[in-house]
Design a protein that fits this description.
The complex is a heterodimer of chains A (264) and B (245). With 264 residues, chain A is mainly α. Chain A has twelve helices and no strands. The longest helix of chain A is centred in the N-terminal third of the chain and has 26 residues. Chain B is an alpha/beta fold. Chain B has a six-stranded mixed beta sheet with strand order 5-6-7-3-8-9, sandwiched between helices. Classes of the chains: A mainly alpha (264), B alpha/beta (245).
């Protein structure tokens, strides 16, 4: 029925999108619960600086962006834990700093503008077989980590001092969560783009939260919503000839509006 | 003056704690101990360092001076001030909250919910509960970890009087089970009727003893006595169902 999936590039796009639909809301549930969802936006901007560095020096952008973004995540978490600067202020500083560096590097990388735009808004149709494998590996790592440390992560999200008193390794787990968020942000760059990734992280979770009765149900429903948005967004993008990243996020927003309407 | 603890097991021993934030000295040479089955009311005027002392005892804050020794293997439960939990952004239900304390053990979680008379609310969203119900769930969470000491920080703030009474009844039942309770409160009158021991703090400890001797204690500084009278007066007027702000 959907002849678009006769094309290899669309199948790869669908697989990549579905892998992100599983991975991103799993992390997003904890980040939204902690009111820390803007971390993905800040890290996306830092990752763009990494992409710029890669383009200027002729290296594979994602390979440069990954350590730069993970470094940014560790810095953010350190600032938050040591209360050097408040959480939201450090997010804002890193966000604008990352973007400023990205803009300057984009200017330096003459003739690379097209490439850079790919990382800003994503280009899911150019997903390579290797991208799918890397995303699959990342999904396994993220889901395993959350599965093994679910209760501790939930305790931290609900009541961080309480989790500390209960003996959970709060500081370490927060660093790992931030690091994995950075990894997923970098891997999402070419799919939905740096400017849209936080939408995929936040909107499905908030939509699920409108009617879910528990945290676990919210997380599972958010995965379903993200998967639905990926499929619908891709189909929409293919037939309407619009950017897939934008289409996926718009479907997410439409689902949120529907959920909020029916909640009333 | 000091109650005898010779027959009670020592659970926690804090010795000579001093805490300062920058130039401000919040706690000075505070020493206190907690024995099994005690119900300690930690009171004092605003800014006296009550919450700071609680955090130091819990290990959430490292004092500049002094030590906190805990009995080996001792389990500590903690009920923070209301509203400190993330409850609105993503729904979490009552059972999930209690399971956090129960290390995933559903039987312990159910028992704890029954002890606070909230078993029929297990599937409700935590955010949809009243303040009093939320605090009972937090007690159940702490209870499910089978604590030796339960620390509470202003647990009844913003809760109506009827729910407060139910809450205190539950605390009494826990004390009878042998759980030590340390409760920070600004509600001096209620504390005096509930606890087995009062510790009054104002930077350092100004009273540590039986509640019945608290108001007649000659050593209680006049300064705190005045503040206590003010509080007493305030609560006399507040009584009537209005929630404490």
């Amino acid at each position: 029925m959907l002849d678009i999936f006769q094309y290899g590039f669309m199948v790869r796009a669908l697989l990549a999108g579905l892998l992100l639909a599983v991975t991103v809301p799993v992390l997003g549930s904890f980040l939204v619960a902690r009111r820390y969802s803007l971390i993905s936006d800040s890290l996306a901007h830092v990752s763009l600086a990494g992409v710029g560095l890669g383009l200027v020096f002729g290296a594979t952008p994602v390979l440069v962006a990954a350590p730069v973004t993970i470094g940014g995540a560790i810095l953010l978490e350190w600032l938050r834990q040591n209360r050097q600067i408040s959480g939201e202020t450090s997010l804002a500083i890193l966000m604008s700093g990352g973007l400023a560096i990205a803009v300057v590097l984009a200017n330096l990388a003459h003739g690379m503008r097209t490439d850079f735009t790919t990382y800003l808004f994503g280009s899911i149709a150019t997903t390579a077989r290797a991208d799918v494998w890397v995303l699959a590996a990342a999904a396994v790592v993220v889901v395993s980590f959350v599965g093994l440390r679910y209760r501790a992560l939930l305790h931290i999200a609900f009541d961080e001092p309480g989790a500390r008193i209960a003996g959970h390794r709060v500081s370490l787990l927060n660093y790992v969560l931030a690091g994995l968020t950075a990894l997923v942000v970098v891997l999402s760059l070419r799919i939905v783009g740096g400017l849209l990734i936080s939408a995929l992280l936040v909107i499905p979770v908030v939509t699920a939260g409108q009617f879910a009765r528990s945290f676990r149900q919210t997380m599972m429903t958010a995965i379903g919503i993200a998967a639905l948005a990926v499929i619908a967004g891709l189909v929409l993008a293919f037939y309407a000839g619009i950017a897939a990243g934008g289409a996926i996020v718009l479907v997410c927003l439409a689902l949120l509006c529907i959920a909020m309407f029916f909640k009333k | 003056m000091l109650p005898s603890h010779a027959d009670k097991q020592l659970l926690l021993d804090a010795d000579d704690l001093s805490v300062s934030f920058g130039a401000e000295q919040v706690l000075q040479h505070v020493s206190m101990c907690v024995h099994r089955g005690e119900f300690i009311g930690l009171i004092g005027p605003n800014g006296a360092g009550k919450t700071t002392l609680l955090k130091a005892l819990l290990g959430l804050l490292r004092p500049q001076h002094g030590t906190v020794k805990k009995q080996k293997g001792m389990v500590v439960g903690y009920i923070p001030q209301r509203g400190s939990q993330a409850v609105t952004a993503v729904p979490i239900n009552v059972m999930e909250v209690v399971l956090l304390g129960a290390h995933g053990n559903r039987t312990s979680a159910n028992d704890a919910l029954q002890a606070v008379r909230m078993a029929d609310m297990a599937r409700k969203r935590f955010a949809d509960l009243s303040g009093g119900q939320q605090q009972r769930v937090m007690i159940a969470q702490a209870l499910a970890s089978q604590p030796d000491i339960l620390f509470l920080d202003e647990p009844t703030t913003g809760i109506d009087e009827h729910s407060q009474a139910a809450f205190y009844t539950i605390l009494h039942e826990l004390q009878e089970r042998g759980i030590a309770i340390v409760m920070v409160s600004h509600d001096v009158d209620t504390v005096l009727t509930l606890v087995t021991r009062v510790i009054c703090l104002n930077g350092s400890i100004v009273y540590d003893g039986a509640p019945e001797h608290f108001e007649s204690d000659k050593h209680l500084p006049d300064m705190y006595k005045k503040q206590h009278m003010l509080l007493h007066h305030h609560h006399g007027h507040a009584a009537g169902g209005a929630p404490d702000a």
